[in-house]
Structures are given as structure tokens and as C-alpha cells.
């Protein structure tokens, strides 16, 4: 159920909309009937707002649970990358397991040890001890950026290791500055990076969040 709460939070964070059964099923890689059962239990615990035949949204209690787990997860990812030599593409699954089992004292100490980071290695904002999320600059998805426009990558929404490693190898990480060069007739986005001109499928480009240079 905690994974479901975090999944709803991530989807709402990305879209700003309520979350459907099929969307959460895809996020968690489970079958829709399993999500329906989870929704019933989350409703009983007051963690989601649910009405018949409508998508759901987190309640304040649900959002607090989600933010606590997101804080754990993003601090752990930062620690594994900065201190233990993990690649940014391999930390997600590790931290999915760990996030449920660390105490508030541990995460507070970890945050201090890491010098109070505001974002994890993927650029995702880290809630502070009060569960306040740092204010982000106005940002857009890379697939919506006009040609001949230079932007700075702020966040990567992709969760799978293969995509993250591909992006890193092409100079597409948070903090990197890139220029959109061309949209090809077959739906690829050509961008200039420090290492070349990769061609990105629209779906991949949509997972890259940017701000003006």
C-alpha cells in the first residue's frame, strides 16, 4: 500500500491530475484488479479521496505518508550515488526496498551528512524534515521545446535503468545544457549536447524536464 501511495504521488506530481486505476497499474507494474483492491484499503485508511468511477487523489494524510517515503527514497538515492559509487541508473530499485525501513532520525542524520541536498541525482526535489518541497523554477518537458532553443536539464522522470544509462552516456543529465536542433518527420528530437547530437524518441524527450538557460 505504501508503494501505491508513492505511485499516486509521483503521478500527481508529474501531471497535476487525479490518478486512474490503469495509470497506477502501469506505474506499479501490476494488473488493474489489484489496484482496485488497493484503492479500497487506502480509502478505508483515509489516504485517498475516491468516488465511484472517478480517478483518485491523495488526502492530506495520504500526501504526508507519500512525502515521508519520497524524502527517504531521494535522500537514499543521493547517498548511494555520492558516497557508495552507485550509478544513477541503478539506485531506484535499491531505494524502493530501503525507503520503507529507515527511521526519521536516520534520514535527518543522512540529510545533514549530505549537506542538506535540495534534489536527488535525477533532479527530483527532496522534501525537508517538515515535508515541505523546495520550490522549483518554471519548467517544461523537452518534447515541447522549440527548435533552436537552448535549455538546461533540471529533472529526469525516467525510472528504468536502461533509459537513464542511455541518457547519461549522451550528455543528458541534470545540470547539462542542450540545444534542440530539429524535429524529424519520423518523430525524433535531435539535440546538441557536450558529447554529440543524439536523436530522442518523443516519449524519452517527454521524460526530460528543462528550464530556460
Overview of this protein structure:
Among the domains are: 58 residues, Arc Repressor Mutant, subunit A; 74 residues, SH3 type barrels. Helix content is 43%, strand content 16%. The strands form 2 sheets. A 6-stranded antiparallel sheet has the order 3-8-4-5-6-7. Strands 1-2 form a two-stranded antiparallel sheet. Strand 5 and strand 6 form a beta hairpin. Helix 1 crosses helix 4. The longest helix has 24 residues. The protein starts with a helix and ends with a strand. The mean pLDDT is 92. Homodimer. GO terms for molecular function: DNA binding; DNA-binding transcription factor activity; protein dimerization activity; transition metal ion binding.
Which labels suit this protein?
DtxR_MntR_Metal-Reg; two-stranded antiparallel sheet; single chain; 8 helices; manganese; DNA-binding; SH3 type barrels; 213 residues; alpha+beta; Arc Repressor Mutant, subunit A; 8 strands; globular; six-stranded antiparallel beta sheet
What's the CATH class label of the domain at 139-212? Answer: Mainly Beta
| Name of the CATH superfamily of the domain at 139-212 | Ferrous iron transport protein A (FeoA)
Category by helix and strand content: alpha+beta
State the separation between the terminal residues, measured CA to CA.
Answer: 40 Å
* Tally of DSSP helical segments: 8
CATH architecture of the domain at 139-212: Roll
Q: Share of helix among residues?
A: 40-55%
CATH topology-level name of the domain at 139-212:
SH3 type barrels
Family: Belongs to the DtxR/MntR family.
Subunit structure: Homodimer.
Keywords: Activator, Cytoplasm, DNA-binding, Iron, Manganese, Repressor, Transcription, Transcription regulation
Protein name: Manganese transport regulator
Amino acid at each position: 500500500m505504501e508503494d501505491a501511495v508513492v505511485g499516486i504521488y509521483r503521478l500527481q506530481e508529474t501531471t497535476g491530475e487525479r490518478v486512474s486505476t490503469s495509470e497506477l497499474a502501469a506505474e506499479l507494474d501490476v494488473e488493474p484488479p489489484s489496484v482496485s483492491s488497493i484503492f479500497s484499503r487506502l480509502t478505508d485508511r483515509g489516504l485517498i479521496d475516491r468516488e465511484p468511477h472517478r480517478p483518485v487523489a491523495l488526502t492530506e494524510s495520504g500526501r504526508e505518508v507519500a512525502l515521508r517515503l519520497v524524502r527517504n527514497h531521494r535522500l537514499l538515492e543521493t547517498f548511494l550515488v555520492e558516497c557508495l559509487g552507485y550509478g544513477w541508473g541503478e539506485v531506484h530499485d535499491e531505494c524502493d526496498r530501503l525507503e520503507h525501513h529507515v527511521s526519521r532520525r536516520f534520514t535527518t542524520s543522512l540529510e545533514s551528512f549530505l549537506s542538506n541536498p535540495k534534489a536527488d541525482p535525477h533532479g527530483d526535489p527532496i522534501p525537508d524534515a517538515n515535508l515541505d518541497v523546495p520550490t522549483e523554477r518554471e519548467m517544461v518537458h523537452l518534447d515541447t521545446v522549440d527548435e533552436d532553443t537552448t535549455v538546461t536539464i533540471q529533472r529526469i522522470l525516467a525510472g528504468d535503468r536502461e533509459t537513464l544509462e542511455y541518457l547519461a552516456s549522451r550528455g543528458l543529465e541534470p545540470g547539462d545544457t542542450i540545444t534542440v536542433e530539429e524535429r524529424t518527420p519520423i518523430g525524433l528530437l535531435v539535440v546538441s549536447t557536450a558529447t554529440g547530437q543524439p536523436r530522442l524518441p518523443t516519449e524519452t524527450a517527454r521524460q526530460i524536464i528543462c528550464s530556460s538557460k
